[in-house]
Amino acid sequence: MLSQILKKHWGYDQFRPLQEEIVQSVMDGNDTLALLPTGGGKSICFQVPALAKEGLCLVISPLIALMKDQVENLKKRGIKAEAIYSGMNNHEMNRILGNAIYDTDFKFLYVSPERLITDGFRVNLQQMKIILIAVDEAHCISQWGYDFRPPYLEIAEIRMLFPKIPVLALTATATPAVVNDIQEKLKFHKKNVFQKSFKRDNLTYFVAQEENKIGRLLRLIEKKPGTGIVYVRNRRRTKEIAEYLQHFKVAADFYHAGLDTETRDKRQLEWMSGKTRVIVATNAFGMGIDKPDVRWVVHLDIPDTLEAYFQEAGRGGRDLKPSIAVMLYDSNDVKELKTNFQLAFPPVAMIKKIYKTLCEHYQIPMGEGENKVVPFDPDELLKKLNIKPIELINSLSFLEKIGVLMLSEEVKKQSTLHFTADEETLQNFYNNNYKKQEFAKLLLRSYGGLFSNHVKINEEEIGRRAKMDVTEVENLLLELSRKNILHYTQRSAKPHLLFLQNRVSENYLYFKDEIYKKRKDVAQKRLDSVLAFVENNQLCRSVLLLEYFGEKESTSCNDCDVCRRVNSLHIKHKEREAIQKEIAIYKHLTHKEIIEVLSERFSEKKVIEVLRNFVY
User: Fold this and answer.
1) Which of 16, 47, 367, 586 is the most exposed place for a label (fewest CB within 10 A)?
2) What is the secondary structure of 456-495 as a DSSP string?
3) Among positive and negative, which fits the CA dihedral 475, 478, 479, 480?
4) Is 265 left (phi over 0), alpha (psi -120 to 50) or beta?
5) Pairing mode, strands 167-171 and 130-135
6) 607: enclosing H helix or E strand
7) The pLDDT of residue 616
């Protein structure tokens, strides 16, 4: 029956490796954790068993774009599915919930983990015939994961409403510690993990220190045919690099989360169709995209984690044909990575100082303030504290984690502005609107790059400079947007803070080890692993990555930059295998002793090189 469902809806004659075992585990009612590499067909693992049973599969996913994409694909196959996400009107949401409750043919309901928190949703959920709970990007539930999201912890509460319903957790990347934590946080009845090897035989990794990264990128594009992705950390650089490539007649475009939805969708489609050969993007690009013929992926900045790197690099070669993943870095990249780590964990003394300043700023007396909601203007606090914006946001995040306050989403989502008018249009506008001319010039003086990018702005700060109240600023920006002078993306609501407890002396704020010290220790190890991978010149790149994900007995790829350097010694394959077998026999000895023993039969230099690349 399972094979028939696969053939009927997807046209496949057989499952991919491990898919059938995972599907059968779910059919047997077992809680199941599936670790399948990027592009490994994770969605089929919950879609097939859900179609084999009567009832509804609840799919919890962190990305709206991914939910929309999967729902659209299911509908094309004649399968009833819907997604509920932020921005929907109540009428549409109620229609979907009604279908999920009363339509017996309704099969998949996709929701974000944040939706699980609302009481109204839980009431509706209890009226649905849930047969399976699928948790996508399951590493987000682990506090030791690289992308921890607290709302995922609500899934355990949802399970209590459906105690006999199995959970299928899916992720492409997880270390052994995260694998255990996922099962614990999701209240698995017993441990049950299906893991496909993360090894990608068709994907070759290269890492090189390079001062002229853009020049080398261009040479690589000219030399390597096919479609590619270039990842950078900074939104502004996506545009700069894409324009540089266009100058050399490369069909390139850029992509980042600051672009409006229509533009992002258009650029993604043009890249998917082959009209655009190279997409230069931040890490916002790629999740849920299944383009099989990506021949190369280049990182011009060092990713924050090996998990992120593995996922992004893994978007190359999904058709199983040879592809390459290249990382180019310089000394400044290493410094930046270390600086970002420090900023992510502000000193506890700074966090306490910010708490005290917040209470004084909003005139909250000792022993009062519980449930007090206040408007949040980060610029005022930044001036008082003389710190960087990221330090303020990260400090507030830690205060949120210890239950002192709560940030509205708008604290992290600022409005953006982009001047779209050409020079002639802008000059005509200036000639006819003196007041608006002065306002436009004030914007251009206050923020750099408004003609080339969507730039984050603060309406309160603009109001102070223009001597206008915030409502006037917003209305004027909306008017200029309607006249196509600029593009204004307005935050959905004004940012605010909610104080959850009465004010106490900052000296009495308590940070549990799990919230600060242990999380920082884990992040430090993650950083060390990235740096070890980047600076490594002895161990096969593939072996090093696989070791990180718990695969201890992998063999060298013989093709990455490190292996090629080792192979330049002209060690023949059979000779290398013979040396490796001898090393395995004498693995109880020290490296120096192994070299002495084997040097009687093999070149000492060759033994040293093989030993450097050998995994016990």
Assistant:
1) 367
2) EE-HHHHHHHHT--HHHHHHHHHHHHHTTSEEEE--SS--
3) positive
4) alpha
5) parallel
6) helix 604-612
7) 43
Q: Which tokens is 355 given?
A: 């708490």
Identify residue 174 by its one-letter amino acid code: A
Question: Are residues 170 and 138 in contact, defined by beta-carbon separation less than 8 angstroms?
Answer: yes
Averages of pLDDT over runs of 10 residues in the chain (616 residues) are 89 90 96 86 93 95 83 92 82 90 94 83 92 94 80 88 94 91 95 91 94 94 94 93 96 90 87 96 81 95 94 92 96 92 92 94 93 85 86 90 79 76 78 79 84 80 86 88 84 79 92 87 93 91 93 88 78 80 85 84 81 62
**pLDDT computed for residue 438 by the predictor:** 86
**Strands 496-499 vs 130-135: parallel, antiparallel or unpaired:** unpaired
Residue 428: helix, strand or coil by DSSP? Answer: helix
Q: How high is the pLDDT of residue 147? A: 75
CA-to-CA distance for 529 and 308, rounded, in angstroms? 12
**397: amino acid identity, one letter:** S
Burial level of 44, CB count in 10 A (0-12/13-18/19+)?
buried
What are phi and psi for residue 334, nearest 5 degrees? -65, -45
Sequence-distant (6+) residues with CB within 8 A of 291 are: 227, 271, 272, 315, 318
What was the pLDDT predicted at 534? 96
Pairing of strands 203-209, 323-329: parallel
Q: Are 473 and 462 in contact (CB under 8 A)?
A: yes
**Can you say whether the dihedral through the CA atoms of 367, 371, 372, 375 is positive or negative?**
positive
Q: How far is CA 66 from CA 58, 85, 161, 297, in A?
A: 15, 11, 26, 21
Q: What are phi and psi of 72, to 5 degrees?
A: -60, -45
Question: What pLDDT, on the 0 to 100 scale, is given for residue 321?
Answer: 94
CB 198 within 8 A of CB 171: no
From residue 509, alpha-carbon distances to 189, 299, 346, 351 in Å are: 36, 41, 15, 10
CB 139 within 8 Å of CB 131:
no
**Other CB atoms closer than 10 Å to residue 588's CB: what's the count?**
7
Q: Which of 406, 402, 412 is nearest to 352 (CA)?
A: 402
- pLDDT (tens digit, 9 = 90+) per residue, 382-416? 888 888 888 998 999 899 888 899 887 555 567 88
d(CA 555, CA 498): 53
Query: Exposed, middle or buried, 271 (CB in 10 Å: 0-12/13-18/19+)?
Result: buried
> In this structure, what token pair is assigned to residue 477?
């920006």
